[in-house]
Amino acid sequence: MTAADRANALARASHPAPTVAVTTFAVLVAALPAGQPPRTVLLVGVAVLAGQLSIGWSNDAHDVAADRAAARPDKPTVTGAVSGRTLWAASAVAALACVPASLALGTVAGLLHLLGVACGWAYNLGLKRTPASPAPYALAFALLALAVFHAAPVAGWPGADVVVAAALLGTGAHFANAAADTPDDLAAGVRGLPQRLGARRSLLVTAGLVGVAAVVLAVGPSRPGPVGTGLLVAGALGAVLAGRVRTARAFPVTLVAVGLVVTGLLVGG
Fold this sequence. Notes:
Layout: H1 3-13, H2 16-30, H3 38-62, H4 64-69, H5 76-79, H6 84-103, H7 107-124, H8 134-150, H9 160-187, H10 193-197, H11 199-219, H12 225-242, H13 247-268
Helix pairs in contact: 2-3, 2-8, 2-13, 3-6, 3-7, 6-7, 7-8, 8-9, 9-11, 9-13, 11-12, 11-13, 12-13
């Protein structure tokens, strides 16, 4: 196996879609305040990317036996492209890199982000198999919003509407992502709340959560103005669409809907 093959396997095992999406959204929010130093935006990107990589790799590393038993062809650990030991090592390196990058944002912001990353690990190591599976998502995304906003040079806190919306959006993404993988997850013994509800109900929950997040931002203190409100409406409609499309397409449609909602917030400043 070539170095390129190993790198490709590591990339696929990192859960690239949510990793890239969460990092991109965090960087965009970090760039929101006028005059934000590029260094802060860069540090947010590095910290969040490292945290997401550690979560993604530890997820697949922890589930090697279950994924092999379920014969999941989408997992590099099942096809033999990468070993669980390699993923544990990669996740450890990413987690260690996440610590100084996070604390470089400031002690409070750094600890908030690291607590959010810990929520992701808690999900991987057990909560994903319980009805409480949405809880670490809700808490982690709320903490991410608090951390990114507080990382600004003039430390401050986001409005309650932003924190609530972040928790709703993160939880919605969890239901959408799980809906597409429900058959494979059940075969692997994963019975989180989305798997217990079933794919179709999970998509309806996703639509509701993202739609409510858009409403919260539209009527809350952030009130993004006409253009931003239009984007929020588009995001809510996208969430409704995500609840109606085939489960395999639900997650990317949800990411677009979430992107519209976040962009609505950004446009509103």
